[in-house]
TrEMBL record:
Coiled coil: none annotated. Residues 1-82 form the Serine dehydratase-like alpha subunit domain. Keywords: 4Fe-4S, Gluconeogenesis, Iron, Iron-sulfur, Lyase, Metal-binding. Its EC number is 4.3.1.17. It catalyses: L-serine = pyruvate + NH4(+). One of its GO terms (biological process) is gluconeogenesis. Pathway: Carbohydrate biosynthesis; gluconeogenesis. GO terms for molecular function: 4 iron, 4 sulfur cluster binding; L-serine ammonia-lyase activity; metal ion binding. Transmembrane segments: none annotated. This is L-serine ammonia-lyase. It holds the Pfam family SDH_alpha. It comes from Staphylococcus pseudintermedius. The keyword Metal-binding applies.
Length: 83
């Protein structure tokens, strides 16, 4: 439902950012690093347009969810590396 109301950026972007911060905490990072991971992750997805096929919030949303999860983990790695 959140994808239909706020678009892919609201759904995938926020989930990716939360996953990035959680991954940093899981890997033993600091709260500051978690904040950096969150910022890196959300900035990668800013401006993502919601363009569902046939008006359904299914395609390309499903693929974007997978991309968002990878983005979260990569952002966590970047933050832990000090980028």
């Amino acid at each position: 439902i959140s994808g239909a109301a706020g678009g892919c950026q609201a759904e995938v972007g926020s989930a990716s950012a939360m996953a990035a911060a959680a991954a940093v905490q899981t890997f033993g990072g600091t709260p500051e690093q978690a904040g950096h991971a969150l910022a890196i992750s959300i900035s990668n997805l800013l401006g993502l347009v919601c363009d569902p096929v046939a008006g359904l919030v299914e395609i390309p949303c499903v693929m974007r969810n997978a991309i968002g999860s990878g983005n979260g983990l990569i952002s966590a790695d970047l933050a832990l590396a000090g980028v």
